[in-house]
Inverse folding.
């Protein structure tokens, strides 16, 4: 019942030309994909160009960030409505790099999730514990706060537009992946949180992606877990061959 999603977060990589080339390659190789959603998130300056390359293909577009205002005196920021205008279907919020480097709080991230949904787009809400939080047994508390505060005010109906990405910070860009069991355990816990916050149907319908050094050689084991509904892929999404293999998980 939950359609798998494989999303590529290109972070701060690739020029407009390189982004369009990679998008074109993905479109050529993934033209017939139907049973899973494929999403790519290039840098802002490549969004419009990439939107042109993936038009009329199954590949969808996401922004890596947004600002939670429609319009106004917010120099340097981009609203969900403008991201929709340029062709985005999703916006990522709460990525750990933004939480850590830019001190983004759960409250601010919640505003972005809300603004994303209100603009008619899908919100990909990233959560995850640091190594220190895991080792000091704070992981469940951290995930609980990130979910509760990140989804504050989001109704059960609006949850149809929300995808959660569980990304343990210690696994992002490190080459260290959570084991299949560690990831499944966290995902089951998150689904339980959703059941407590909403109700069973919402918990069962919400997709929870795993992120953190997902590669061609570990995606199959992760995707075999009952509560893992897809992947948010960083490094391995920058190479067509690797990303395509991840999309084609077995
Ligand atoms: C990410 O950027 O969300 C991510 C999971 O990166 P990587 O796959 O490189 O660990």
């Amino acid at each position: 019942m939950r359609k798998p999603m494989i999303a590529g977060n290109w972070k701060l990589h690739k020029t407009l030309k390189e982004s369009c080339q990679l998008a074109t390659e993905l479109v050529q190789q993934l033209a017939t994909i139907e049973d899973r959603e494929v999403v790519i998130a290039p840098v802002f300056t490549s969004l419009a160009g990439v939107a042109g390359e993936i038009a009329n293909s199954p590949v969808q577009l996401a922004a890596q960030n947004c600002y939670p205002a429609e319009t106004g005196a917010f120099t340097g920021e981009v609203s969900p409505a403008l991201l929709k205008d340029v062709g985005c279907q999703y916006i990522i919020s709460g990525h750990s790099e933004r939480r850590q480097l830019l001190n983004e709080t759960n409250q601010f991230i919640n505003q972005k999730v809300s603004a994303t949904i209100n603009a008619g787009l899908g919100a990909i809400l990233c959560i995850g514990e640091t190594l220190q939080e895991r080792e000091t047994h704070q992981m469940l508390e951290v995930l609980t706060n990130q979910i509760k505060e990140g989804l504050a005010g989001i109704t059960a109906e609006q949850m149809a537009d929300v995808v959660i990405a569980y990304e343990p910070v210690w696994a992002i860009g490190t080459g260290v992946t959570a084991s299949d069991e560690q990831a499944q355990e966290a995902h089951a816990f998150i689904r339980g949180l959703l059941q407590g916050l909403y109700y069973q149907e919402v918990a069962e319908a919400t997709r929870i992606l795993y992120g953190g050094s997902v590669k061609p050689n570990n995606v199959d084991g992760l995707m075999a877990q009952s509560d893992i509904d897809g992947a948010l892929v960083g490094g391995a999404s920058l190479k067509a061959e690797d990303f395509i293999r991840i999309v084609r998980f077995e």
Summary: The pocket of phosphoenolpyruvate is lined by residues 9, 11, 167, 172-173, 211-214, 232-236 (CB under 6 Å). The first strand starts at residue 5 and ends at 9. The domain at 5-247 is CATH 3.20.20.70 (TIM Barrel).
